[in-house]
Amino acid sequence: MKKHSHITTYIVIAMILGGVVGYACHVAFPDPRIAKDVAGYISIFTDVFLRLIKMIIAPLVFSTLVMGIAHMGDASTVGRVGVKALGWFITASLVSLTLGLIMATLLQPGQNIGLPLPEVGAATNLKTNAFTLKDFVTHLVPKSVAESMANNEILQIVVFSIFFGTALSTLGEAGKRMAGVIEDLANVMLKITGAVMWLAPIAVFAAIASTVTTQGLGILVTFARFMGSFYLALFVLWGLLTLAGVVFLGKRAFTLIKLIREPFLLSFSTASSEAAYPKMLEALDKFGVNRKISSFVLPMGYSFNLDGSMMYCTFAVLFIAQAYDIHLPLGTQITMLLLLMLTSKGMAGVPRASLVVIAATLNQFNLPEAGLLLIMGVDQFLDMGRSATNAVGNSIASAVVAKWEGQLASESTLDQGDQGDTGGEPASLHKPDTAQA
Q1: pLDDT in tens, 68-112
Q2: Closest Cα partner for 264 from 388, 393, 395?
Q3: Dihedral of the CA atoms 73, 79, 82, 88 (nearest 10)?
Q4: 316 CB neighbour count, 10 Å cutoff
Q5: What is the reported pLDDT for 343?
Q6: How many whole angstroms separate alpha carbon 219 and alpha carbon 377?
Q7: How many Å apart are CA 351 and CA 330, to the nearest integer?
Q8: pLDDT at position 234, please?
Q9: What is the CB neighbour count within 10 angstroms for residue 147?
């Protein structure tokens, strides 16, 4: 635990230093073009780190998910866990989307913003025509698993892994050799993950420094009302997620929140939910979630349970409507909410993915797509908060589903295990099936 708390400390220090260095560069290079070039070189470290994460994410999701399904034993168990997870995801999605509507309506962040509005016909260069029901359903199934892994299509990898893991579980003794190979692959990927994560503080420093170099701190003042309103809404959502955790997990929910502080900070500082995935698995292991549950629920959550991103979609759409003084009737808002329930699924856990969903929604309801230009300048800062929220939501979802399945180890069992933990090797791929006491 000491080693991991050190990494968390390094990440916090890196965020502070990144802000200081970024502000110094912003002052030293007032020309936006030069500042952009300088920021581009600084962000090399972040780009390399995120590429390393993308390098390991597909084999890690595949191997851990397949082993999780294989250890469940039969298709009925897989189906039961899947239904419980989807039930939680749908409920959390509705709560997040509704909260975005309520908070934007109450706070009115788009009223009298005091900024020149972009022309209604201004181009945003975002693709907005790929969010139909037909496209969503067909996109679920990969036409090539190699292509899905190359593009890090998490949802398609999950679908293939479910088929693969379910088939493997039916082979009995004949499948043990293949299962052993995949389990070894998972442990290798966890080992690589441990090495990659030591680069996280450098990546965090570069991410913050490059953003502040180009945007400066003044933009935060200009958009203070909008950003403050959104982060207030996020705080409310964090409170609701924590409350849900307390309802189902009791006081242990606060232990979980403490354990996920490192992946939370990593998601926040890099504005990428994907970056936190390996550390999230590790945190859930420490909390006592059986790996066969977390390796199944967590990848699904990255496609179906992006709480922060979904709340931002409704919040941002209403902000743009308010900025252009366009009134949206309650019926239209409800229709928009239901549409976002569909279009947000499969949203990539990478920076700026939600902007495409928002653009599609604006287009669907004849709202000025140019309104996105208002928020693009501060989207990086907003993406940090919503990515961190996605990490919180998925960790709580995994723990609750494990509790429902009796696959959450008791605190006494974890205390006994900690006494013999050397801290040098990756966590066991599948913990004993110890029910919550």
Answers
A1: 777 776 677 778 888 898 899 889 989 999 999 999 999 988 887
A2: 388
A3: -130
A4: 28
A5: 62
A6: 8
A7: 30
A8: 94
A9: 11
φ, ψ of residue 348 to 5 degrees: the values are -65, 140
Host H or E run for residue 37:
helix 32-42
How far is it, in rounded angstroms, from Cα 287 to Cα 262? 14
Bridge partners, 408 (sequence order): 289
Average pLDDT, the chain: 80
Residue 276 DSSP code: G
> Could you tell me what percent of the chain has a pLDDT over 90?
17
Strands (DSSP E) contained in 231-341 are none
**Class of residue 285 by CB neighbours under 10 A (exposed 0-12, middle 13-18, buried 19+):** buried
What is the Cα–Cα distance from 239 to 220, expressed in whole angstroms? 24
Give tens-digit pLDDT for 168-210: 878 877 788 888 888 888 888 878 877 887 888 888 888 888 8
Cα(432)–Cα(408) distance, integer angstroms: 10
pLDDT grade, residue 230 (50/70/90)?
Answer: very high
Radius of gyration for the chain, computed over Cα atoms and rounded to the nearest angstrom: 22
**Per-residue tokens: 122:** 């201004």
Tell me how far the alpha carbon of residue 299 is from its chain's centroid: 10
| Amino acid present at 38 | V
Q: Give the whole-angstrom CA distance, residue 380 versus residue 353.
A: 11
Asked if residues 208 and 19 have their Cβ atoms less than 8 Å apart, the reply is yes
Q: What is the pLDDT of residue 436?
A: 37
Is the pTM higher than 0.90? The answer reads no
User: 277-287 vs 176-197: helix axis angle to the nearest 10?
Assistant: 110
